[in-house]
Amino acid sequence: MWIYEKKLQYPVKVSTCNPMLAKFLIEQYGGADGELAAALRYLNQRYSIPDKVIGLLTDIGTEEFAHLEMIATMVYKLTKDATPEQMKAAGLGAHYANHDNALFYNNAAGVPWTASYIQAKGDPIADLYEDIAAEEKARATYQWLIDMSDDPDLNDGLKFLREREVVHSQRFREAVEILKEEQGKKKFY
Amino acid sequence: MSQKQLPQEFYQLMEELQAVDFVLVELTLYLDTHPDDTAAIQQFNDMAYYRHQLVPQIEQYYGPLQQFGNSYSGYPWNWNQSPWPWQI
């Protein structure tokens, strides 16, 4: 089971109300390479992955939910004081019409999250290579977001998340090596 | 809804817990792929012990950090007491 802890993994601060940054950030909430996709991908793949890497998929999948909460906190703080006028001016008029200032699982272009973003192939190498690619794509997205943001407080949180993608990618690469080593072991009877 | 005012000590302790938990999550993922590293396991267990000392100090100001029996409740039931993490 999972147990919620009433704390963020890393402190989230924003300098000012800025709904346009929130519009871009939502990519990491409900986008193809976002945190929801990551968490659901890993926690679903773990049932058919070899035992040696179940722990890793469980732990990284769980950490992704902590990242999802950080992104949600950023979006919430950037938009909570925004007026309908400000939402509209930031390109969030269509969002406001459907959701008011509530969060929703869609990407920066407003496309709702879909399970077709993720795969479970039942082939350990195929799954882990997808996971490595997912981490690298998420890292790149964080970089593009940092490049567009002029909020130093927000960027501190985004840089933390960017570095976590690097660590996850590294661990998945090690998992591939562990499985290759297992596969290469010849059994004699 | 009125939010509980938290003293300065809470913010310092919470930052300390976030730092400790960062060490723990890093060691966890590292040990998932390096299960035979004795020194890392020793460091992990030391940090886990330290975490257990730290949590009750935070809960004294903030109330329960976890549910399902992992934290004790005050009276009245204080799990739903604000602020929640995104409100801090």
UniProtKB/TrEMBL annotation, chain A:
Q: Its domain of life?
A: Bacteria
- The residues that hold Ca(2+) are D59
Q: Which residues bind Mn(2+)?
A: E35, E64, H67, E135, H168
The UniProt GO MF terms for this protein read: metal ion binding
User: What Pfam families does the database record attribute to this sequence?
Assistant: Mn_catalase (PF05067)
**Entry's cofactor comment:** Binds 2 manganese ions per subunit. Binds 1 Ca(2+) ion per subunit.
Record has Transferase as a keyword: no
Which cofactor(s) are needed, names only?
Mn(2+); Ca(2+)
Q: Does the keyword Plastid apply?
A: no
Which terms are listed as keywords in the entry?
A: Calcium, Capsid protein, Manganese, Metal-binding, Virion
Entry's family note: Belongs to the manganese catalase family.
Q: What is this protein called?
A: Spore coat protein JC
TrEMBL record, chain B:
Limits of the Protein CotJB domain: 12-87
Enumerate the InterPro entries for this protein. Answer: CotJB_dom, Spore_coat_assembly_CotJB
Cited Pfam families: CotJB
Q: Which UniProt keywords apply?
A: Capsid protein, Virion
The source's domain of life comes to Bacteria
Official protein name in the record = Spore coat protein JB
